[in-house]
Amino acid sequence: MKNKDILTIVDKVYPIISKDYSCDAKVEIYKSIFDRLDAVPAMGEDKLEDDAFAEYSWDANKIYLYTNHLNSEEDIIRSLIHECVHSNQSYELFEAYYECDLDYETHPYEIEAEYEENNWEKYKLNTNVIG
Q1: What is the rounded average pLDDT of the residues 100-121?
Q2: Which residues make Cβ contacts (< 8 Å) with residue 26, sequence separation at least 6?
Q3: Does 127 have pLDDT greater than 90?
């Protein structure tokens, strides 16, 4: 998707999602996590974060959307919901769960955020913007 199309969708749905999920994070758009960090991945590391749709920063109170994988309105809405859920979770507990050898699939905060993504159709605009 083009950044312009992503911004159009974000501008229309994020105010509603942020209100529903009590999230006041600013949204920024980047091609990838490496683009956001202005970094070049080390050999083999480019695949580590290559599947990230979005990320929430507790320190900056920002949601970062990564255009490499945002191919539809659904992807954008799901990502915004997911990260808004994280914005209301405890960063200390988020990290502590990972320190207990949980992975993404078994992490309670990730499970909660993914569950909430199922509400994405409530915010659907029917833009049919793909690619």
Answers
A1: 94
A2: 60, 61, 62, 63
A3: no
